[in-house]
Amino acid sequence: MTIEDWLKATLADAEHRGLPELKPLLEGLAQATTLLRSAGFGGSANDLPDPGEDFDH
Amino acid sequence: MKTLTIDEFARQIRTKQITAVDVLEQCLERIRTEDPQLNAFILVMADEARREAQRADEELAAGLDRGPLHGVPISVKDLFDITDTPTTAASHVRDGHVAGSDAIAISRLRRAGAVLIGKTNLHEFAFGTTNEDSAYGPARHPLDPTRSPGGSSGGSAASLAAGMALATLGTDTGGSIRIPAAICGTVGLKPTYGEISAEGVVPLSRTLDHVGPLTSTVSDAWHFFHTLRGDTVLRPLAPSAVRQLRFGIPRKYFCDLLDPEVRRSFESSVDALRSAGATIHDVEIPNARFITTIYVHIVFGDAAPYHAAALETMPERYTPAVRMRLEMARYVLAEDYTRALEGREVLRREVDAALSGYDALMLPTVPIPAFKIGTATVDLNGSKEPIRNITLRLTQLFNITGHPAISLPCGKTSHGLPCGLQLVGTRGQTDQLLHVAAGVERVLSV
Q1: Where are the domains of chain B?
Q2: pLDDT of the residue at B52
Q3: Would you state the CATH architecture of domain B1-287+343-446?
Q4: Interface size, chain A vs chain B, as Cβ–Cβ contacts under 8 Å
């Protein structure tokens, strides 16, 4: 799920549950999650090997 | 007020200069006169404490000596189960709760002869650093009741600093022992992750929660820590010779945003240690910019399931701010929680690497001194920083990585507000960190 889709869905859910005051908090969490994902911790299935490295698989 | 140390108490009770009952009554009198203003206690257990103190005196008279904590009045953060006593977590969500048994940490204190004087105020469910969001009202700073004692173990720190107990038991998920210790001018120890059992403690994040003591001195922390660990063989604290110590300072990120007076206290401490012969170099945590987001995703992911049912059935019983943060926590995705756990491993390796060749890392504990209750943001280097973020900024890394960390008093601001120096040791070597801290304490207390 992209951050944009996640934020859209969570804001709608918060509104539906009568918690509009969550909006600024969720927007802040979206920024934090964007930063977390940018770090690339744990790697990704479509990571490509560095072309400079030997690759003999 | 100058609080009697555990060492002083131990010496004086054995030379019959004091009794456990006398010292307890002094603490109860302090509570009677000071606590209406400070609001450090949620429950004062005067009757039980008097029975325990009487028993402690009788045991010593009969030749039964349970060790350094025998007869010592200790306050307990109200997250720990004490048999037949409510564990409120400073929340009305817990109304009606009565613990059926003691937390393991409490059992160990009892076995060591400690006198449990009462349960202290905290930020609701330990989910904050100001102590303002408590169902029982905010705890207040002993030096200035218009200010926060920090948190979440704020009532604990206030009870110790105000002389209402000789030591206090806290928990630390992002800095909740070290932050109030620094802000109130006491010692606060977060041991290595998992070293002290958290069984019988209301959790915030089982991945990050630590149990530990707040005390007046490093030696007191040593006694308290070994009691909590369940050690039965007493070993002496051996303060390290500072001239043989090597410290690493992670300046980038950790010294970027500091109140000028906190910075001055920190640099004065560094200078004093260098003058005493310590070797001090700068070190780096390359991924420090990800600390906060990793912390947030782990603590949210852990807190959400524990609170989900109560949020559905009794949301009005939470304080508004804590309720909103817990509701936000429920939206963290599993994939991001797992990313944060992966990030934890990266940070753990980086702290291990930073410690390589050093006895400890050294950094301030909290970037700002005690702040006025109700403060939302603080200006640092021209930017407005939220109080919650800035108070956690220098401590939360070591909850993520599990390294032992201790805060020591290191001077005061021009307004007389305490500053804290944080030392961080190698995982699994909390004893060694305490030896180092005792050496540092000797230099800084001159």
Answers
A1: 1-287+343-446, 291-329
A2: 98
A3: Alpha-Beta Complex (3.90)
A4: 59
